[in-house]
Amino acid sequence: MNMDVMQLFWITGLFVLLLGVVGAYCVLMTRNLVRALIGLEILVKAVTLLLVVAGYVSGHEALAQSLVITLIVIEVVVMTVAVGVVFGIRGNTGSLDTRHIRNLKG
Fold first, then answer.
1. pLDDT band for position 98 (50/70/90)?
2. Average pLDDT of the chain?
3. Quick one: fold of 3-103?
């Protein structure tokens, strides 16, 4: 393996780790539902970037691209449903705070 490819992998790996930490912080430490969705998006983008770089390093670019496209399609569907749920919660409670979700009865 070429030394430049491995250096690219480690630099990108550190960036992916940073994105993962930021995304996990957004999901775990906020009480705002929109911020939690943004954190989830950041986490998914970190995984997407890691898949692309791992495919490039291993020489399986076609497999990595197909996995990334599948991940993007699933992500769009999940985020669309999640935003719909957040809008529904906002309509019922008048707030985006997660503490107000406990008051809902279904």
1. confident
2. 91
3. Helix Hairpins (1.10.287)
